[in-house]
Specification:
By secondary structure, the protein is mostly beta strands. About 10% of the residues lie in helices and about 25% in strands. Strand 2 and strand 3 form a beta hairpin. The longest helix has 6 residues.
Length: about 60
C-alpha cells in the first residue's frame, strides 16, 4: 500500500457497549481524529488499527 493509511470506521455496535474507563459514562466517536471522546472525563482515547485503546494513561487530555 502507498500513501497514508486510513483507519476503518468504528463499528457502531462496539461504540454502543464501550464506556469511559474513568467515569463509566458514554463515549462519542470523532472520525476526524479517530478517537473516542469522553466529555465527562475530558479525555480522547485513540483508536489504533481499528482497536480502541481504553487505557487512561494512553488518552489525550481535552483540557485547555
Amino acid at each position: 500500500m502507498s500513501g497514508a493509511e486510513i483507519s476503518p470506521p468504528l463499528d457502531p455496535r462496539l461504540l454502543s457497549v464501550l464506556v469511559c474507563p474513568v467515569t463509566k459514562g458514554p463515549l462519542t466517536y470523532d472520525a476526524t481524529t479517530n478517537e473516542l471522546i469522553s466529555a465527562q472525563a475530558r479525555l480522547a482515547f485513540p483508536i489504533r488499527d481499528g482497536i480502541p485503546v481504553m487505557l487512561p494513561e494512553e488518552a489525550r487530555s481535552l483540557e485547555g
